[in-house]
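In keeping with the milestone schedule agreed at the kick-off meeting, the structural modelling team has produced records for the first pair of proteins. Each record is given below as a sequence line and a structure-token line. The laboratory manager (R.T.) confirmed that both were archived under the project's standard naming scheme.
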Amino acid sequence: MKFLSSLSRKLSSRLTPGMCFLSVIIFALFLFFILPEVSDRSYQVTKTSDSPDGSFFYTPEKLYHVAEQYGESGRSYYIKERFSFDVIWPLVYWFFLTTSITVIYRSLNTKWQLLNLLPSFGVLFDYLENLSTSAVMYFYPSKIPFIPWAASFFTSIKWSCIYASFILILVGLLWQIILISRKFVYKVKNR
């Protein structure tokens, strides 16, 4: 726990509002320009919009069905993308989520400080998901007993961490608006 607290404090001391602004710009560029292009290219190669990355939960049967749909070239493309684009994209959303949570919650009680680590767990499980789904794609049509279930578990945890991080940002922003409004009302009343 000391390691996590220390890591959280380091992030808190180094991540500034300026870095938060930069993270928003980078995240928006990826969201509006790069992700649609990658998605289109993936569709052209695999001929389907099915992907284990986009589901919150899937069964091993569904994962094997996607592997079959992709065909050999689609599976090869999928693996290549997991170790190129999908190494960078988690770092982009990590930077945005971590910086935003850190900056928003910095002024609040220090017990909330550890919240800035939640996106890191999302990235960790994203990488574990990439490894396990790539293993399924690589060894297909052979079936490995526990890897597809692990992949589904990693995907669910990844999405839970990411969704919770976005919720934390929204709640933190609302909380900051309420605090600023109270200060403003207090100043107006005491004039």
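The second protein of the pair:
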Amino acid sequence: MLKTIRAFFEARNVLEVETPLLSSGTVTDQYIDAFSTKFDFSQAGASKTLFLQTSPEYAMKRLLCAQSGAIYQICKAFRHEGEGRWHNPEFTMLEWYRPGFDHHQLMDEVDALLMSCLNTNTSTRLTYQAAFMKYVGIDPLDVSDDILVRAMCEHGIDINKPEQLDTDSKLQLLFSQVVEPEIGNDSPCFILVFPPHKRHWPR
């Protein structure tokens, strides 16, 4: 797998880079927690806290600012979060950046990478709105909270006081529990225009 990934990017003239795993700063995303460790031998002569990277994003963006051009990295990432079927605190991540590419070109490249590495079928693409209408039977850009609650009940989403959730949470529950199980089974699926802009949501 690693050999295939490296050959894929080499053929496209994307430079492989390696950045530090430890940093004096940590992620600013409030929903991601980092591991920290104490370093006793800093140049300042005092102990300081270092953080294991949650992704190589910040270091790689520094390279982009230094005019590195297109780059990729296969590295370890660490997140201090709940362990389970879909999460391990240490995992391997592939991250790459393509200056000058728009999101459609990036989707094309992800699709080509998946076909190269996993022998997948060509991907499909649906807008967030079309996916909701196809699999849930409602238009997420023009729907009342009452209809969202009714759809949650119809699809077996059994939670306490669903009417107290905001629109965003209702939509996300329906998407994760109803739409996601239906997509990507025969071929990868890109969901476009996701999430919808809040100005479209009911007040």
